[in-house]
Amino acid sequence: FNLLTFQRWLEMHTEHCSKYNFTWINVSLQVWMYCRLYRTMERFNKPEILEAAKSGGAFLRRFARIPNSGSPWKCAFCLTRDGKALKVQRTIFSECFYVMAMDELARVTGDKDMQVEAAQMMDQLVHWVRVDPSGLGKPQLSGDTPVCSMAVPMMLLCLVQQLTEARSGEEVDKYREVGGWCVKQILQHLQRGGTAILESVSSEGKELPGCEGRLQNPGHALEAGWFLLQYGLENGDQELQRTAVDKFMEIPFLTGWDKEHGGLLYFLDVDGYCPTQLEWSMKLWWPHCEALIAYLMAYSHTKEPALLERFSQVYDYTFSHFSDAENGEWFGYLTQQGKVTLDFKGGPFKGFFHVPRCLYMCEKILDSILNKQET
Fold first, then answer.
1. What is the pLDDT of residue 21?
2. Which pTM was predicted?
3. Beta bridge partner(s), residue 65
């Protein structure tokens, strides 16, 4: 592998995705990605990229929030091209992506109102997660057992890092406590004496009974791994850095890598039973993106050769199976044997985010490694 591979694919991916109109709320992630590229990479500092981001941001501010949903902060998950709401999820993720888009766009444009709106939405998210979730619209059913999904503290930790990057003062101090809470919640998913990362646990941080409690998502655990590593590096927490690599990267990789066909399985059952998710044996694009980021980041800071070997292993599989060298972009969904099973390249869940974020971050990390070698 080499740096030019990431540079070439990032440029191709950006050009390809700019030709399409996305009607799903993942346009938030596209706005975030365009702004991040425009702000931090000179070759993407182009007026057409900024204008696309600003247009997307204006669309989101006008249509994404749906006041008649019961909360003035609830966002649609899916919109028509002319801004009519089609679907609302009773989760926090559409709103999280909205925060990412607004904050990053505010950094590029200098729009203080937009930055304030992002912070206000973050306050609402913290309230929904830690105080009162009723505003999400999910009914409280008598037989419903409280469950803590790892996705929730992961996403809030991502937002803490977004909102505090290169900033100081009271806002950063406020989010420091939230970040610590998120880390504590994520670490509760390290179960069975530190030998397994489980996707969901009880509200007390214990393993849940049945197939829900046994569920593992290797890609998600790897993503949590680099979130934790990044947080540990920013806060000088060496124990957390080690836990991020040894537990949240190595365990899911060793259990999730398909030894016969290669690639990361989508879901696993910690006791070896067949997961109940019908797509459990498929290979999806985004877990491999997260694995590339995780292992390159881990190698960059530890210089352990085994971590670079892991990165190379994922790299070889990813670029030989998902990327379409002839027509550009990446496929998203493969069979267990590694054959393309769904040949669309964009949809409700695969937008302009996981692939370009992976390419962007890997290029940045490789740049850093090479610069250190030169000095």
1. 43
2. 0.94
3. 75
pLDDT at residue 111 tops 50: yes
| DSSP states of 315-358 | HHHHHHHTB-TTT-SB--EE-TTS-EEE--S--SS-SSSHHHHH
The pLDDT, as a whole number, for residue 7 is 73
Q: Which two structure tokens, joined as six digits, stand for 253?
A: 């990789």
DSSP secondary-structure letter at 250? Answer: H
How far is it, in rounded angstroms, from Cα 29 to Cα 56?
10
Distance CA 234, CA 219 (A): 23
Cβ contact 200:149 at 8 Å: yes
Between 145 and 190, where is the model more confident? 190
DSSP string covering 194-248: TTEE-SEEETTS-BPSHHHHHEE-HHHHHHHHHHHHHHHHHTT-HHHHHHHHHTT
Q: Can you say whether the dihedral through the CA atoms of 272, 273, 277, 280 is positive or negative?
A: positive
- Yes or no: say if 85 and 76 are a contact pair by the CB < 8 Å rule: yes
d(CA 155, CA 166): 19
* 205 class by beta-carbon count within 10 Å (0-12 exposed, 13-18 middle, 19+ buried): middle
Predicted pLDDT at 15: 66
Paired strand residues for 202: 147
End-to-end CA distance of the chain: 22
Sign, CA dihedral 189-192-195-200, equals negative
Q: Which two tokens stand for residue 323?
A: 């990327």
